[in-house]
Amino acid sequence: MAKISAELSTLKRLRNRYRLVVMNDDTYEEVVTFKLSRLSVYIALCTIFVVLVGLTVALIVFTPLKYYIPGYGSQAERREMANLKIRADSLEANLKNKQVYWDNIRNVLAGKLPEKLDTVTLNMPEVEKTDD
Fold it and tell me: What is the pTM of this model?
């Protein structure tokens, strides 16, 4: 029960109305008067914070300022990195193919033939030898 009454009193304090008066110090004339509550001040501050964060993110994302972020790099560097990655992949595949080739040559020279060849056996007719 005490918890519910504490929540109600907190909600009541958030909704209490206050008056903010801006006065001229010399003439004591009221320049501006605002009627505020704590809840409206919190909402206004949160809205200003979200808008400022959104504008900052938009400024960085949609302008060349993003190239000043460490690790982002320029467009030319990113393009060069992609090309280097493609070249490295092709060199790796080429190295793998050469390794398979040399392993096959080593096996043939050692007399180790694989059980199953990847070629089709050709049935060639025997050629008759003539004595001319």
Answer: 0.50
Per domain, the residue ranges of the chain are 13-70, 74-113
Distance separating alpha carbons of residues 74 and 100, to the nearest angstrom: 39
Which phi and psi (to 5°) does residue 69 adopt? -75, 130
- Name the pLDDT band for 116 (thresholds 50, 70, 90): low
Per the structure block, which two tokens stand in for 81? 């990195």
CA angle, residues 80, 84, 86, in degrees to nearest 5: 120
Average pLDDT, the chain: 86
Angle at CA of residue 62, ends 57 and 65, nearest 5° = 80
- For residue 74, what are the contacts with CB-CB under 8 A and spacing of at least 6? 67
> Do residues 21 and 33 make contact, with C-beta atoms less than 8 angstroms apart?
yes
Backbone angles phi and psi of 73, in degrees to 5: 80, 170
pLDDT digits (tens, 9 = 90+) for 27-37: 989 999 999 99
